[in-house]
Structures are given as structure tokens and as C-alpha cells.
Amino acid sequence: MKTYKLVVVGNGMAGIRTIEELLRLDPDLYDITVFGSEPHPNYNRILLSPVLTGEQTLQDIVLNDLDWYRENNVTLHLNTSVIRINRARKEVVASNGITANYDRLLLATGSHPIILPVPGHDLSGVITFRDIRDVNLMIDAASRVKHAVVIGGGLLGLEAANGLAMRGMDVSVVHLGSSLLDRQLDGTAAALLQKRLEDRGLAFLMQRQTQAILGDVHGNVRALRFQDGSEINTALVVMAVGIRPNTDLAASAGIHTDRGIVVNDTLQTFDPSIYAVGECVSHRGMAYGLVAPLFEQAKVAANHLAMFGISRYAGSTTSTKLKVTGIDVFSAGDFVGGSQTEAITLADPVGGVYKKLVIRDDKLVGACLYGDTVDGAWYFRLIREGKSIAQLREHLMFGEGSIGDTGHAGENSIANMPDSTEVCGCNGVCKGTIVKAIREQGLFTVDDVKKHTKAASSCGSCAGLVEQILISCVGGAADIKPKTEKPLCGCTEFTHGNIRKAIREQHLTSVSDAMRFLEWRSSDGCASCRPALNYYVLSTWPGEARDDSQSRLINERAHANIQKDGTYSVVPRMWGGVTTPAQLRRIADVADKYKVPMVKVTGGQRIDLLGIRKDDLPAVWKDLDMPSGYAYGKSLRTVKTCVGKAFCRFGTQDSTGMGIALEKELAGMGSPHKVKLAVSGCPRNCAESGIKDIGIIAVDSGWELYVGGNGGIKTEVAQFFVKLQTAEEVLEHCGAFLQLYREEAFYLERTCHYLDRVGLEHAKARVVGDAANRAQLYARLKFALSFVKDPWAERVAASPARREFETLSV
């Protein structure tokens, strides 16, 4: 017989985690009743973003399904809100009339999203990002409208913006501050993050204060107005400006609240029979919104509900390890620093890495990491333990792997990591727990580790570390799938290779055909799979496949690069970087006519017109009367050239002529990722051919070809491919290599990563060593290019393509 009655108000992560801990301590002590205001069982709110992007479904993120409640004899009332607590009778009353008596009451009411009290905040199309209902509203909106504004540059705002962008929307982020994630990152790291997100197509309106949300005659959102009087058109507004502890129920029952439900170190409220955990709580004047502190509270509350009475919650030292739209960031402690601290920094903007370590009195007190966060857990441990780092200082910036028991660099950091090291901050799982589960339960996969320990089951940022622990325990028996064996996305079990094979063998010529044949889990697909499928059918069946424009990202739909303020940049084609006075006059006239705020020469030797309104784009293209430069596409971008022997006294070959010939030959070529070429007229390499997807360097006896270079976030030096004598040979070898890349690379895989996967020798054997195969590859490329039409010219003409473009405007 169970002795006591426990009622839990709130079916979220903190409340149910408390029950889990309680059941571990004493499964027979309470009859447990849970009230949840949503119609769903307990799910992982941290993973709402992957649901928004389409990578996961609600079922994928459910933590405790309905069977779990039944198996543990927990009475669950879904879609039911508690509206009153009668403390004298120890009774709660729900909105549907249900009552429940308690001996102990646990309040886990969470928080409310903040709604800015501006005119128009109640219009249709204004939503928040807090629960699965909000996600479903955003997914529905993305299928109907094209432009969204997200108010708030914090984590939730960025995740909402990324998810909507992956759904094909034009997204602008409005932020009151001067830098993103201002509670988690310093200014330098925030600037790197903003630049990276802008490169992905998000636009940012910083230091803007919303004055009003404007509606149309039907009560729908149509625009946002700022304090400075400027406006931005939109059909969807997502408010992600913060949360407020949900104290309404507690306050109405006379329980003491002050910026949260006030609790002591045992998580008891003013009423000793009522406990509280989670985002609704104020402990020592602090409210926490991160998962790890809430789970620490749950463990302490469960200890006292089980009547052990030996645990105290003294607050949490918080760290934040996030994957912001696929970009790793980490911060902990006092990462800002001040006059009494010193900072060690490492900044590599080109490599996309930034580290800042803050030290006070020979102790690490704060850390801020961008791009490389593998040592975040180690830095966090040093911060929490407060030990002197005087002996570690020389190696501190280079991470735990550089410091072994003997102080030598390069020792195995996993092997040296103590069992007490916390690996999963969200669920409080240490290395020893994971190792014990792997050995005692015979685990071989990360999914198995998740099921048995909950490590990596929340935000997932520690999954890489869990993989390393798994490998260190079972070696080669660890079932760690490489990218080649991973599904394209959560909509399918098939890999990129499986899908390309099916498209080729089954003659599938559209996205819908491919989804139908491969039995896609979602008929709509997601923002990850649709662009990939569209590329695969188009590249496999040129001239036959049906291009699905809605499966392309916004830049490729608008045929221009979206900028941070919602305007676009236009880069007209200049063959090989060569222009004429007439073209320059037209560009100048367009800049004047449309009041273009910036005219800039790009790194690829082209002229960029920045700040053009979307509805002006067709007119700009018409007035320019130049081909599209494809600066926005997964396609050939530019062929950069130096002057070559025509003028340069060091030039050995006609590099400009070669660049023009290549660019004209390859114009409009679609590819798995962007492709850039360069031709240098001598080994001095003024055109930077050594960091291009294909680099051609002139020598006295002909041309040297290099492949697989990349000048992006992580610079990759191109590898020598072949030496040739004639221009015709250069065209054929370049075309054949690019066609091989088009046919074999995964969508969004750069040439350098493709070569890492298949090997340079594979590409050499297919292109350099096999003349017949090279000719076939080159012929297939030329056949595909025969169907290319200039997208700007199509949309300038009075045609369906023009009308399709015009529907993009909000």
C-alpha cells in the first residue's frame, strides 16, 4: 500500500524528472497524479528546433510516453490546467472540474513567454516559440507566407529564425542589443556567429526597438514599425524576447512569490507541504532557464519528497553549450571579465575559431568558445572546482588533450578524464556512469547509451564526447556510423548514396516521385531533404527532371543574395573578371536609378550592388542587361583571373583568356555546393588558384591543375591533379572533374570534403587515367549545360517565371 499522495502540477521536463528521481529512491511511497496543460506526454523542449526544421517529429522528442506513466502507476491528466489550490483542504481543482487531494504538492508550472506590450501584439500571425503548438503554427505559416520577422536575438530567436529559413522563408531577426546571444557570448564571438548566420541567408536588424505591429483589414500581420519610424513587411512575427516564471497559480494560493515561486535549499515553498522546481522557481533570488540547473533541483526535491532529507540545493554554476543552427558555442562563468581579471584569447576568424579564457588570482573564472567547444566540459570543471591553474597555464588554451598526467601534449584526454567528470550537463551524467553502463549492459551505440543513461538525449551537444567514450571502452566494436551511412534526414532511413542510386536506377525525375518511391515518412519532406532531392533529380536527369523551385533556398528562388536588412545584393556576370566601359556605365546608372547604398568589388573580381529591394530585382536585371553571376547559388560562382601574358611581364600563358573560356563553358552549372575557379598566369599565383575548387596555374610548358581547395571558414589548400599542355585539355579535364563531383558528391559537400571521402586517387583514376571515361564525363556535363537558361532573363520577360518570382514578395 502506498502511504502518501503526491500531486504534480506541470508535465514538463523538471516535474517529470523529479518523479523519475523519486521513483528511483522509493517507488512505493506515493500515489502520484500529474496535471499537464498540453495534450501531449512529457517531451524534450530543447529539441523543438529540430522539429521546426523537419529533422525530427514530436514522437522523436517524447521523453516519457503514455506507457511509462501506466507502467509506473502515475495518473496523468492531459490537456488539463489546475486553476486553484485549496491549501487548507490540501486539494487542487482543475479547469474541467477534476479535484485531487495531496499530502505533498509539487509545482512545476514553468514559465510564460514574454509578449511585448506593443500595439498589434494580438494580431493573427503573432506567435511565440515555447511549445509544440507554437512549432506547428510556424510550420503552417511557412507553407502559406514567405517572409517572417523574429523579435529577439537570443538562443530561441536564432533557432526559430533558422528553422523558418530552412522551411524556405525569408527571415529577418530584430534585436534590441548590439550583439547576438549577449548573455552567452562576448562581442567577438557574437560577431563571428552573426557573420556565419548572415552567410546562411539570415538578415539581422540590430539595435532596433519595435514600436508597433501593423495589421491589414482582416486582422493579419502585415508589417513591423520601429521606433525610428522605419518599417519592414512581414506576414509572421515570432516573439522570442524572454520568459517570465509562471507564478499565477502559486500567488493566487497565497504562496510567497518574488520573480518566481520562492523556495529554500530543499525546494520547499513558504508552505512546507508544497515544493516547486523548474523555471517557475526563485532560489536565493535566482531563476534558471537552462535544463541542467532544473535537473539539479529535481534531484534535491526528490530526495526530500522521499523523506531522506540529506540533500541541499545551493544554486548552480551554469555553463551554456549550444549548437546554434549547427554552430558550436560554449560559455561558462564570468566570461566578460573586468579590471580584476586577465584574459587569454585565441582568434582565428578564417578558421572560424575563437577562445577566451578569463583568469582571476590564478583560477579560471570564465570561458567563451566559438567554433571549437570540445574542451568546454574541462574548462567548466576547472571553473567549478576553483583550483589553481598556475601549472596548466602554458597549455590551458590548447585544451585538456595537451595536458596528460606527465604534462606532455597529445595524451588521450578521454583516458585521462576522471570518472567524476560531467559529460552531459543537461542530465547530470558523468563519465563513470556512461562507462559502467557500456560495460555492464554491453552497449555498442550512442543510441543505447542515451536509453540507459540519458546522456546526449537532451540538447545533444555532448554526443561527440559520448562517441569518444564509447570507442575508448569497446574500440572497433563501437557502432559509430560515418556520414556515408547516416540517413539524409529524419524523413527517411536512406543515405545520400542510396537515394542517388534509386533516382538513377528507377528513373525518378521529380522530388515527389523520389519521395513516393522511397516511402518518405513525411509527404512534405523538410528543409534538409527537399533541396537535396531536387539537386539529385536535376543532376541525374538533365532536360527531363522537373525543377521544384519551392525546394530551393530563398537565395536560389530570388536569384539574389538576401542581406541582413532584408534587401538583396546583385552580382552581374563579368566573364573572367573582364568588363567594358559600357557595362560600367550601365552599372553606375542602375546604382543611381535605384539608389543602391553600396557598390563593392568582391573578392572574386566582380561588382556587387548591395541594398536592392526585392520588388526592384527584375527591373534592375533588365536595366543591367547582363547575365546572372550566380553569386547566390549552389553552382559555378566565378573564375578569378590575373592579367597573364597579355600585359604582365611575368605572365607565361593567357590566363585571362583561359578564365573567360572556362567561365563561359561552365556558366549556369548546378552543383552540390558552390564552386569557384581561378587561373593564374604564372607560378606567382596572383589569382589565388591554390585555394579554389579548381585552380589552374600557368607554367612555361602549359598548365598545372589543382583541385579541392577552399578559401572559406576553414581554408583547404588545393591538391595537384594533372599537368596539361593545351587550353582544350584544360577545359576537358576541368569539366570532367566537375561532372564527377556533380555525380558523386553529396548535396552541400564541398569539393575538398568530397575528395576527403572518396580519395584524390579515385578522382585521378576516373579523370586523368581513363581518357574514355573522361570524355564521357565531359560529354554528360555539356549535355546538362545545354538546358541552362539565364534566370534573370527569364524573370525579366513577361513569362510564368516572372509571375512566379513576383509571388515571393510579401
Features:
single chain, about 20% strand, 27 helices, 5-stranded parallel sheet, about 800 residues, FAD/NAD(P)-binding domain
Q: Can you put this structure into words, describing what you see?
A:
The protein is of the alpha/beta class. Among the domains are: 4-112 and 245-305, FAD/NAD(P)-binding domain (3-Layer(bba) Sandwich); 126-241, FAD/NAD(P)-binding domain (3-Layer(bba) Sandwich), CATH 3.50.50.60; 496-552, no CATH class; 633-789, Sulfite Reductase Hemoprotein, domain 1 (2-Layer Sandwich), CATH 3.30.413.10. The chain has a five-stranded parallel beta sheet. It has a five-stranded parallel beta sheet with strand order 11-18-12-13-14, with helices on one face. Strands 23-24-27-26-25 form a five-stranded antiparallel beta sheet. A hairpin with a 2-residue loop joins strand 23 and strand 24. 46% of the residues are buried.
| Total DSSP E strands | 38
Structural class: alpha/beta
Do you know the CATH topology of the domain at 4-112 and 245-305? Answer: FAD/NAD(P)-binding domain
Query: Low-confidence parts lasting 5 or more residues at pLDDT below 50?
Result: 404-412, 801-810
Major pleated sheet: 5 strands, parallel
Brief description of this entry?
The protein has 810 residues and is α/β, with parallel strands linked by helices. Helix content is 32%, strand content 22%. Mean pLDDT is 88; it is low at 404-412 and 801-810.
What's the helix and strand layout?
Elements: E1 4-9, H1 13-25, E2 30-35, E3 42-43, H2 48-53, H3 58-61, E4 62-64, H4 66-71, E5 74-77, E6 82-86, E7 91-94, E8 99-101, E9 104-107, E10 111-113, E11 126-128, H5 132-142, E12 147-151, H6 155-166, E13 170-175, H7 187-199, E14 203-206, E15 210-215, E16 221-226, E17 231-233, E18 236-239, E19 243-245, H8 248-252, E20 261-263, E21 274-276, E22 281-283, H9 291-305, E23 319-324, E24 327-333, E25 342-348, E26 353-360, E27 363-370, H10 376-385, H11 413-416, E28 422-424, E29 429-430, H12 431-441, H13 446-453, H14 463-474, H15 496-505, H16 511-517, H17 529-540, H18 554-558, E30 561-562, E31 568-570, H19 581-593, E32 598-601, E33 607-612, H20 617-624, E34 636-641, H21 655-666, E35 675-680, E36 694-699, E37 702-707, E38 719-724, H22 727-744, H23 751-758, H24 760-767, H25 771-785, H26 791-796, H27 800-806
Parallel strand pairs: 1-2, 1-9, 2-5, 9-21, 11-18, 12-13, 12-18, 13-14, 20-22, 34-35, 35-36
Antiparallel strand pairs: 3-4, 6-7, 7-8, 10-19, 15-16, 16-17, 23-24, 24-27, 25-26, 26-27, 28-29, 30-31, 31-33, 32-33, 36-37, 37-38
Helix pairs in contact: 1-9, 12-14, 15-17, 21-22, 22-25
